[in-house]
Amino acid sequence: MITIALPKGRIAEQTLEKFEKAFGEKFEFEDRKLILKKAGFTFLNVRNQDVPTYVMYGSADLGVVGLDVLEEKEYDLVKLLDLEIGKCRVAIGLKAGDSIDWNRSSIKVATKHTAIAKKFFESKAMAVELVKLYGSIELAPLVGLSDCIVDIVETGETMKQNGLVVGDTIMETSAHLIANKNSFYSKKSAILDLKEKLERT
Ligand code: PRP
């Protein structure tokens, strides 16, 4: 039995479609159920940011998560495969007409991605005042909560519709299959077999 933590929503659905192609079985969470057991797999339906935690503590052998979320957690996990879904980037967002004065000594940044934002601005020799938000990040510069934001951009439509412009890209991200280190060694052949089958989908 292999346990896999999936991030609720579109990525979970797309991952389960890949499993369906790879194993010829339909995998679908029932209504509000958070666990799905079928064909030797247990899938857990968890919040995006919680996937690395389930895998790190070994409650799941594997997980599917964006590189940006992995980067935020800084856990020691095995990166197995780029699933090439959920492709987007982490970028700076600014009020249209605003620009970042890189000579400033500090900047106020609203984001869900605090570790990534801190690292990026510090690499530019700028101190960062972080405002941690959990969603609707685009609002922050509009209401004076921050100078800029660091957020996920897929099409750029959310920023555009809210009067922001997309600035520098900090990192590209996509959903990756990750493994718990102990599970990777103890279930190596099953995990590698699964990886190969998913690679072919
Ligand atoms: C992300 C992000 C933006 C939006 C960007 O939110 O925070 O708001 O997607 O997409 P776009 O560039 O195509 O407009 P998401 O929908 O993932 O929800 P979240 O806030 O819960 O992370």
Q: Describe the largest sheet.
A: 6 strands, mixed
Helix content bin: 25-40%
Overall spatial form: elongated
Low-confidence parts: none
Query: How many strand elements?
Result: 11
Main sheet: which strands, in order across?
2-3-1-4-11-5
Rounded mean pLDDT is 97
CATH class of the largest domain: Alpha Beta
Number of helices: 8
List the ligand species.
1-O-pyrophosphono-5-O-phosphono-alpha-D-ribofuranose
Whole-angstrom Rg: 19 Å
> Pairing-aware structural class of the strands and helices?
alpha/beta
CATH architecture of the largest domain: 3-Layer(aba) Sandwich
Q: End-to-end span in angstroms?
A: 21 Å
Tally of separate domains: 2
Strand content: 25-35%
What is the CATH superfamily of the largest domain? Periplasmic binding protein-like II
Q: What is the element string, with H for helices and E for strands?
A: EHEEHEHEEEHEHEHEEHH
Question: Would you kindly provide a written description of the structure presented here, covering whatever features stand out?
Answer:
The strands form two sheets. Strands 2-3-1-4-11-5 form a six-stranded mixed beta sheet. 32% of the residues are buried. It has 201 residues and is α/β, with parallel strands linked by helices. α4 (114-123) links the parallel β7 and β8 (127-132). The two termini are 21 Å apart. It folds into two domains: 2-86 and 174-199, Periplasmic binding protein-like II (D-Maltodextrin-Binding Protein, domain 2); 88-172, Periplasmic binding protein-like II (D-Maltodextrin-Binding Protein, domain 2, 3-Layer(aba) Sandwich), CATH 3.40.190. It has helices spanning 10-23, 51-56, 67-73, 114-123, 139-142, 157-161, 181-186, 188-199, and strands spanning 2-7, 35-38, 41-46, 62-66, 78-82, 88-95, 106-111, 127-132, 148-153, 164-173, 175-179. The longest helix has 14 residues, at 10-23. The mean pLDDT is 97. Helix content is 32%, strand content 33%. The structure holds 1-O-pyrophosphono-5-O-phosphono-alpha-D-ribofuranose (PRP). 1-O-pyrophosphono-5-O-phosphono-alpha-D-ribofuranose binds next to β9 and α6.
